[in-house]
Amino acid sequence: MPNLYTVAPNLPTETLVLKSYETFSSVRTLLLNLSNDLTGEHRDVALAIHQLSELGVLLVGQMMDREAPLTSL
């Protein structure tokens, strides 16, 4: 069965990191919005996944800061 999703093999690392950050950020937002509509155990699971995605955002953000720090104006 062919892959439905692929990542171009020659993308620069900066592009991969940026897209990862954007993906984690989107997941984080979607999960937080979803958790507002849930209750009980389902809400707890959504918030736990949100917390993991938040960690992903922080980790990728730290990597971005190390690899391509913003210069002060």
TrEMBL record:
What Pfam families does UniProt report for this protein, alphabetically? DUF6124
The protein here is known as: DUF3077 domain-containing protein
| UniProt organism field | Pseudomonas cedrina subsp. cedrina
Lineage, uppermost ranks: Bacteria, Pseudomonadati, Pseudomonadota, Gammaproteobacteria, Pseudomonadales
